[in-house]
Design goal:
- The protein is mostly helical and 130 residues long.
- It contains 7 helices and no strands.
- The chain folds into 2 domains: 3-69, no CATH class; 75-129, Arc Repressor Mutant, subunit A.
- Helix content is 79%, strand content 0%.
- The radius of gyration is 21 Å and the shape is elongated.
Length: 130
Amino acid sequence: MSLKIAFAIFFEGMMQYLKKQKIQSNDYGERILNYLDRHYCEEIDFEEMAEDIGISYSYMRKIIYEMTGQSLIEHLNLRRIEKAKQMLAESNLTIAQIASEVGYNNPQSLNRFFRKFEGMTPSNYKQVKL
């Protein structure tokens, strides 16, 4: 076998391997995002989450960063804030109730992350939306 043919076979094999890895990564990415959709309002142990999905915690963090440009915890907090915004606009729940509903142990945590992502407090947001 010539070197040229051997190289072509090797290159084709590498391309198939990389394509398989990308598909597998996308599948894990969808599983991670679905898990977060279902459990965002709970206290999530990321190590257990990764184990449930069948990958390592570090690989899970890498996948989320590649998909979203955000860290895993930042992405989770952003999901919580998006849900809090919806609840602020559509319900009469208190800030404390909303904090609890979206997975924060106290209203101060909701306030801190809300201000970080939205530039205002939840109560200011609610006033603007009314």
